[in-house]
């Protein structure tokens, strides 16, 4: 039953896409994807010679097909139907091929639900960025560390930037590199004499940050660096090991 | 099917034409995709007794039914026709096997987000609770099976509820859990399911229904916005539910959302059976201020608000002399996380009925966050209904990318209801 219903869905979807391709409701890129999956489903893996360099459209189509490699035909059919459902959730409910404007909007599940159901909402992109509105007052060295830009960090330090300068939370460039897991920047900052035990306004060191953010590589690098004090406690009385995921034994303070 | 290249060649419109058409239709199709703007026409909903876009004002001057009055005798006696090899089935929630079938169908084929990262994963206990309130009818748990294999491939449900819309008390069903197997979405089963559940409800002399959807259909009585409060920000970021603000460290993000281990309101405790009469009165009084709200008797309050771990968490504040002054509640609705190596499930709490009395609402809601966090929920979700609008930001909720629309079937309201006048929660 499953196979025959997939065939039917695929046939219906190809008809829909065929009609929709003329009304602009699908982009060229989308049509190319449909083309590739159609060929894969109906012919099999691409065995056609690659069109000449000057046949731009031909090459784009060939590529869309060839990109699917050895994908089985039934999987290509399923992906074809899924892509259409993703782009036009109620395509099957509307009259075939009329594109926008005639769906019933009662798809019975799928994205955002049909009628009679809740919504799968998640955090909108802007939600947590409100504090970030306005110009970024973070010092350039900290920004470079945040971005993992070793060349910029190197250049700023060579140019005389203070490796110990602080951001708004009292954090240093080393905190940012640890938080984001940029190990090369961590190493570079340490090489330039950044204070490995510097604490932010809450008493958190770069080690705390690496542990909190679960940046294992950065945490290991810091824990093995000379001069590190793993027994330092935050304002909440926690050591890096206290805030780390289970099993990060390398953060245990050896000197108690 | 032959290997001929002809059809897809025709499908691929010439670059210039496609680009022009796309530019011309760009704005429209983008809006359609997000369901923010009415479509030209609705093949199915245009035939149903629902308020339509662009109706003459004169026809909507007063609240009332849309269809001419009917009686049970007027209702079609035989079920609506299904495509060949499909048949109707009434699902028995009390049968473990049938409950499992519904659970599995919804688990694999129900609502996903726009990027197909999360899919609702209602637990069996939750479905039992959601589908069997006082007065439930088994025939309103309406499924479709494949005749040859017996496989359950579609479902829709109705549960009885008394709902007040403006000043009218309506005997309604709440329609929910409309789900069609992904591979059968082309068979147009959803409209048949809606017509069949309508028929089965009409046979019980009920002529109005309430339902919700994310998509824009003719025609919402209310449009509400989802908000989300991170409880476990690291996990939410890791699974792509939210993202780390570009200028914020993870350390600071964790601090921002950190919650105490214990609620702060004195006298706050789990709701118990003995609280039902007081809670019923408290809730009824509070819901008066909203333009659409349920009317629950004691049996319904007992059903909907009895504490059940990871189904519905309900708490009351008990003041001097055993007086119940406040209510807070949320329900647990996990989602499957699709294609993540580290996590396979997201445990979300959804705000349910909450009544501030002696306790200020922000404090009561903050206690709800604390309790949800302490019971392992990753995120707390709420709509901008009730009085939430004024407290969501201060409680560090972030706006969601989803809207929820409320609809009434066979009932027209003269005045759309603003979200802060909605006092009804649908699961």
TrEMBL record, chain A:
Placement of ANK repeats on the sequence? 136-168, 169-201
- Among its keywords, does the record have Repeat? yes
Keyword Magnesium on this protein? no
Q: Single GO molecular-function term?
A: fatty-acyl-CoA binding
Q: Which UniProt keywords apply?
A: ANK repeat, Lipid-binding, Repeat
| Alphabetical list of Pfam families matching this protein | ACBP (PF00887), Ank_2 (PF12796)
* Region called Disordered, residue ranges: 93-141
Q: Any idea where the ACB domain is?
A: 6-93
Give residue spans, biased composition: Gly residues.
96-117
Query: Family, per the entry?
Result: Belongs to the ACBP family.
Q: Which PANTHER family match?
A: ACYL-COA-BINDING DOMAIN-CONTAINING PROTEIN 6
Instruction: Identify this protein by name.
Output: Acyl--binding domain-containing 1-like
From TrEMBL, chain B:
Q: Which organism is it from?
A: Chlorella sorokiniana
* Glycylpeptide N-tetradecanoyltransferase C-terminal domain segment(s): 239-421
Tell me the function of this protein: Adds a myristoyl group to the N-terminal glycine residue of certain cellular proteins.
- Family listed: Belongs to the NMT family.
Q: Does the keyword Transferase apply?
A: yes
The reactions it catalyses are:
N-terminal glycyl-[protein] + tetradecanoyl-CoA = N-tetradecanoylglycyl-[protein] + CoA + H(+)
Give UniProt keywords alphabetically: Acyltransferase, Transferase
- GO cellular-component terms in the record? cytoplasm
Entry protein name? Glycylpeptide N-tetradecanoyltransferase
